[in-house]
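A sample copied in:

***
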Amino acid sequence: MLKNNIETFLECDRDYKEAEVVLFGAPFDSTTSFRPGTRFGSSAIRHESFGLESYSPYQDRDLRDCKIMDSGDLELVFGNTEEALRQIQDRTQEILEDGKIPFMTGGEHLVTLGAFRAVAEKYPQVHIIHFDAHADLREDYLGAKLSHACVLRRCWEIVGDGRIHQFGIRSGDREEFIWGKDHVITQKFNFDGLLETLETLKGVPVYFTLDLDVMDPSVFPGTGTPEPGGVSFDQLRRAAALVCEKAEIVGCDVNELSPHYDQSGASTAAACKIIREMLLAVSPCMKEQQDF
């Protein structure tokens, strides 16, 4: 008998009721400051994931053993940024209220603000771990306060000083770095100190936001704002899995893949593999295994 062909990320096809982690896409790039196209990232990730196995030899774990649902892409309004953020917030809130972990794929980095608003409402003591090439701490970008260049500044307005932990940062204007010294904790260029940060955050709710342009464009050219001097794929793979394994993750996202800037498909494959490793490490049913 023929059945509907429903495309999901790898083996993430559990029913919502039994799912512990719920994936959803946020295809939005209306505030992109340089090259647009991240609106196509979440669907490309889902489609191209079939080029990978669900099993990770790094962790000796398989997505088939995890309780994960891919709920598909949101149908976000274009031309109304606040409304798109509200739609993202509503989906995140629904997942949180049902006791599950929301895992969002973007989309530009501003989509984080919608998800984080819902997370911070449920977990007022939440901290953010932020991997990125860019500080994203501008007060505004060309007069716009809702921009992917300002997203962590908007998140700071929710949580305040000392609750945002940035890694890999290697780009931003001077004012961002001056302001950031007094308000956020930034490790420039690499992941030094990550394990120590995770130790200090034991038992604390953590939202993890990963901008894929933290990777060097020589290995990840498929992004709208490539920034030379980044980390390798394997450095990111290890660091992302470590965060998902060790932290008390209450929500996370992966964003800023713009697939058409890399016709080889290698950037999309890298994004898929990072997401696979994160899902395996964050899934509650996998938490007892800790070898990567």
Q: What stands out?
A: The chain has a mean pLDDT of 95. The longest strand covers residues 248-255. The beta strands are 21-26, 55-56, 61-62, 68-73, 101-106, 127-131, 164-169, 185-188, 205-211, 248-255. The chain is about 30% helix and 20% strand.
